[in-house]
Amino acid sequence: MARDGEITVREIMMSHPVTLGPDDTLETANDLITLGRIRHVPILENGRLVGILSQRQLLGPCVGIMLGVKGKTKKALLKSFRVKELMCSPVFTISPEATLKEAARLMAEKRIGCLPVVDGSQLVGLITVTDILRHVAES
Questions:
Q1: With contact defined as beta carbons under 8 Å apart, do 82 and 58 qualify?
Q2: Secondary structure of the chain in the HEC alphabet?
Q3: What gap in Å lies between CA 89 and CA 49, rounded to an integer?
Q4: What distances in angstroms separate CA 122 from CA 54, 79, 90, 94, one per listed residue?
Q5: pLDDT for 20-77, tens place per residue?
Q6: pTM score, whole prediction
Q7: 81-101: per-residue pLDDT in tens?
Q8: Which of 89, 81, 43, 83 lies closest to 65, judged by CA?
């Protein structure tokens, strides 16, 4: 929990991140990540956080599958896979009242690029390494 003068996760997190469901297709995830210029997507099922999908996860396994595949064939292939087949689960999370230092420490320790921010069981935001670096650079 934050002490006086310490920055909390709530202060720099992205509120209300875009989410997907586990049964959404990789085509939908790819479009969202590409068009939305985002790298991490929390996965919700019935309002509960069940996983996270990163741009790296989406590209890694798909590159081998799609090597040489283009256009309509690539779209058809992406439509045939579901987010739940690639998402990371369980997910490391953090409280909105945690300090930035706690978030940075957890991300470094677990070697992850983001943390979904949860208040109880409710997803309220997302904090990324980029958010933390941007804050440090602007301080």
A1: no
A2: CCCCCCCEHHHHCEECCCCECCCCEHHHHHHHHHHHCCCEEEEEECCEEEEEEEHHHHHHHHHHHHCCCCHHHHHHHHHCCEHHHCCECCCCCECCCCEHHHHHHHHHHHCCCEEEEEECCEEEEEEEHHHHHHHHHHC
A3: 9
A4: 20, 29, 15, 11
A5: 999 999 889 988 988 888 999 999 999 999 999 988 877 655 555 555 556 666 667 7
A6: 0.83
A7: 899 988 989 999 999 999 999
A8: 81
Q: Which of 88, 81, 91 is nearest to 24 (CA)?
A: 81
Closest CA to 10 of 103, 92, 138: 103
Residue 103, both tokens = 């978030």
Structure tokens at 91: 């997910």
